[in-house]
Design goal:
alpha/beta; six-stranded mixed beta sheet; binds adenosine-5'-triphosphate; transport; nucleotide-binding; ATP hydrolysis activity; P-loop_NTPase
């Protein structure tokens, strides 16, 4: 699956627009969005509520169709990419099936994809280990904390080892300590696997801590107002957030949000 050169672009959006027709008239969720995401990048999308972050991620995942412009994922249409299981998707809420165990939830896409029982078991074991949930395979979602459920949903997205991980505000509902820990774990996993990650967040520190690039968006219509390259090293202990370099990038993100009237972030 992973045959691209290191500089290959994974997501290529050109003049992408998406207008929803609603009973209150058209909603311009995305307008003229052009962005290339390279292989192995960690790109965060930040902006006020309703600026189209989720919509953009959903277009990449073929969960929404653009009304204008073009987008390719791994050089093919989002639909083809979805069919070839090019990405794992983590939703805002963990979205685990309550009647399935944690292992059963992670196994579900593998069952659908026709993996052998032995391969399913091995992948469930491996991904649970990755998100530090070994030993919880037979528990049901309600027996786990919110943070653990979110880790299980990340494990489910990782189970078929796609090169692309699309994450829609996965840690938004968690307290800060848990969130810090999951941020560290995610960064470690990204460093180890070289996956390309698209990540929606409302948190400036989270975006700056995780990303190689931060895409700032503004609403009505949803468009990109700034793209900030991170100058931080890839190795990032949590206390990097106290460094002048970090604070400088966070400042620029904040300015970008303000410029796009982002006062409700
Ligand atoms: N299926 C839909 N039908 C109609 N309008 C929609 C639909 N999905 C999203 N929208 C509208 O499109 C705009 C962008 O929504 P989107 O969820 O992408 O924003 P967001 O930046 O992810 O917001 P949040 O940070 O609150 O999750 C909003 O005005 C939203 O109401």
């Amino acid at each position: 699956m992973n045959e691209q050169s290191p500089s290959a672009s994974v997501i290529e959006a050109r003049n992408l627009s998406l207008t929803f027709q609603t009973s209150d008239g058209p909603v311009h969720a995305l307008k003229d969005v052009t962005l290339t995401i390279g292989k192995g990048e960690f790109v965060s999308f930040i902006g006020p509520s309703g600026c189209g972050k989720t919509t953009f991620l959903r277009v990449m995942a073929d969960l929404e169709k653009p009304t204008a412009g073009t987008i390719t994922v791994n050089g093919v249409s989002p639909e083809q990419a979805r069919r070839s299981r090019a990405y794992g998707y983590v939703f805002q809420a963990a979205g685990l099936y309550p009647w399935r165990t944690i292992g059963g939830n992670i196994r579900l896409p593998l069952e659908i994809m026709g993996y052998s029982k032995a391969e399913q078991a091995e992948r469930v074991r491996r991904t649970l280990e990755m998100v530090e949930l070994s030993g919880f395979e037979k528990k049901f979602p309600w027996q786990l904390s919110g943070g653990m459920q979110q880790r299980a949903s990340i494990a489910r997205a990782l189970a078929f080892d796609a090169d692309i991980l699309l994450m829609d505000e996965p840690f938004g509902a968690l307290d800060e300590i848990v969130r810090d820990h999951l941020n560290e774990q995610l960064l470690e996993l990204w460093g180890r696997t070289g996956k390309t990650i698209g990540f929606v967040t409302h948190s400036i520190p989270e975006a700056v801590y995780l990303s190689t690039r931060i895409v700032v968006m503004s609403p009505r219509p949803g468009r990109i107002t700034d793209v900030i390259e991170s100058t931080l090293p890839r190795e990032r202990p949590l206390d990097i957030r106290d460094t002048p370099e970090f604070i400088e990038i966070a400042h620029r993100v904040r300015e970008g949000l303000r410029a796009g009237h982002g006062d409700d972030v």
